[in-house]
């Protein structure tokens, strides 16, 4: 007879509800041959279940040469892929809305607005910063090159009713910029631009804490630096850390330190913004990565690797930089985002146990009756349930 296997995660009665990672979404950028103009491997969206260690493809984005960003907001997630802006249901993965946006790079949601940075190699735009409705992706407004950024924009962060956008002009070789644009979120007006200086051209990744913004700068792709921007004064300090760029995405804020990797290198480094040293500290992880993402709930580092044509893999490291798990995924796994849920938000479930059902706890011990077990998080056929 068919047996249903359950993995039981015990959370004893009286323990406060806590956050869990329900799933990890991955945006696999695929492979586009710019010589032939053919999409050899399409862009895909994948979901990794940390409870079952199962990875699955949940959607394929046809017609996209690449993908550049993804975020989760409430019960939905949003994707920026080449010329497409997409909205999905987070639980069913149903595509709910789409919008054509040429040159979409990064996306950020604040309140009801979805902000889009733009840029593309060899293409000039009348606006490098646009605003859409997060509900149905309809166009709301934009900042043109007279009243807003004049060059390619990239990553965005926000705090204290202000949005900060990196202006790098990274697609125009030899004319990279070192600016951060500041937008008032109440009026959607452009306030000012922060000049990071000549050693901070081509800011790619941006990270934010309570008091500072940190940028990882690729200069003219021949070096790398970090900038630290004081949010109260908008003054900045830049530290050169390498004669080689960090590439795209290979950095993240992990706790109070920045993990990063030099392009084509295999040593993962840690940089402490408090010390402003001109070098990083090796973490003992030696693997060439493509993307880094930090799971704050479990204190795990997710790091992807790829050959950009045939495979992708994600490695998961604990706080001591020990490899705890890994899984295969699509080609060029780029953006990694975490679906964080509170255990009280996962619905109660009525177990209809049959004589053929087999239950196990985390220690592999067989359980005869689930009804007599403590309240907690359960997995049934890959579906997580919180029993209250």
Describe this structure in words.
The structure is a single chain. The chain is mainly beta. The protein has one domain: YVTN repeat-like/Quinoprotein amine dehydrogenase (Methylamine Dehydrogenase, Chain H), CATH 2.130.10. It has no helices and 35 strands. The protein has strands spanning 5-10, 19-28, 31-33, 38-41, 43-49, 54-61, 69-73, 76-81, 84-89, 95-100, 104-110, 113-118, 127-133, 139-144, 153-159, 162-167, 179-184, 189-195, 203-208, 212-217, 224-230, 236-242, 251-254, 257-260, 267-271, 281-286, 291-295, 300-306, 312-317, 323-329, 333-342, 358-361, 366-367, 376-380, 383-387.
Key attributes of the depicted protein:
388 residues; mainly beta; Methylamine Dehydrogenase, Chain H; five-stranded mixed β-sheet; 35 strands
Summarize the structure.
The chain contains no helices and 35 strands. By secondary structure, the chain is mainly β.
Query: How are the strands ordered across the major sheet?
Result: 33-32-1-34-35
Relative strand content: over 45%
Enumerate the spans where pLDDT stays under 50 for 5 or more consecutive residues.
1-15, 347-351, 360-365
The number of distinct helices, counting runs of at least 4 residues, comes to 0
| Shape verdict | globular
Rg result? 22 Å
Q: Could you say what the CATH architecture is?
A: 7 Propeller
* CATH fold field value: Methylamine Dehydrogenase, Chain H
Largest sheet: 5 strands, mixed
Give the CATH class.
Answer: Mainly Beta
Structural class: mainly beta
**Roughly what percent helix?**
under 10%
Name the average pLDDT: 87
- The CATH fourth-level homologous superfamily: YVTN repeat-like/Quinoprotein amine dehydrogenase
Q: How many beta-strand runs?
A: 35
Give the terminus-to-terminus CA distance: 30 Å
Give the total of domains. Answer: 1
């Amino acid at each position: 007879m068919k047996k249903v296997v359950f993995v039981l995660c015990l959370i004893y009665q009286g323990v406060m509800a806590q956050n869990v990672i329900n799933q990890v979404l991955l945006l696999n950028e695929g492979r586009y041959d710019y010589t032939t103009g053919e999409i050899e491997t399409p862009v895909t969206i994948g979901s990794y279940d940390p409870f079952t260690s199962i990875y699955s493809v949940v959607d394929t984005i046809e017609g996209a040469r690449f993908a550049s960003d993804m975020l989760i907001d409430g019960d939905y997630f949003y994707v920026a892929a080449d010329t497409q802006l997409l909205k999905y249901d987070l639980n069913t993965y149903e595509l709910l809305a789409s919008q054509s946006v040429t040159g979409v790079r990064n996306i950020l949601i604040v309140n009801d607005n979805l902000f889009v940075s733009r840029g593309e190699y060899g293409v000039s735009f009348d606006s490098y910063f646009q605003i859409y409705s997060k509900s149905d992706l309809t166009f709301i407004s934009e900042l043109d090159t007279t009243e807003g950024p004049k060059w390619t924009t990239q990553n965005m962060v926000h705090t204290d009713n202000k949005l900060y956008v990196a202006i790098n002009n990274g697609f125009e070789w030899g004319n990279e910029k070192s600016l951060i644009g500041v937008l008032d979120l109440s009026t959607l007006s452009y306030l000012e631009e922060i000049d990071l200086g000549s050693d901070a051209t081509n800011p790619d990744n941006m990270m934010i804490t309570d008091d500072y913004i940190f940028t990882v700068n690729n200069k003219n792709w021949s070096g790398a630096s970090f900038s630290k921007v004081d949010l109260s004064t908008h003054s900045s300090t830049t530290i050169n850390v390498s004669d080689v760029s960090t590439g795209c995405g290979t950095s993240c804020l992990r706790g109070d330190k920045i993990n990063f990797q030099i392009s084509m290198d295999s040593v993962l480094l840690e940089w402490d913004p408090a010390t402003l040293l001109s070098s990083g500290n090796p973490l003992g992880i030696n693997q060439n990565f493509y993307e880094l993402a930090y799971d704050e709930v479990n204190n795990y580092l997710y790091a992807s690797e790829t050959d950009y044509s045939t495979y992708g893999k994600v490695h998961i490291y604990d706080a001591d930089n020990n490899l705890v798990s890994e899984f295969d995924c699509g080609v060029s796994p780029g953006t990694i985002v975490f679906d964080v849920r509170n255990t009280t938000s996962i619905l109660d479930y009525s177990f209809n146990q049959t004589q053929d059902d087999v239950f196990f706890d985390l220690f592999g011990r067989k359980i005869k009756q689930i009804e007599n077990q403590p309240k907690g998080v359960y997995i049934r056929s890959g579906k997580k349930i919180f029993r209250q």
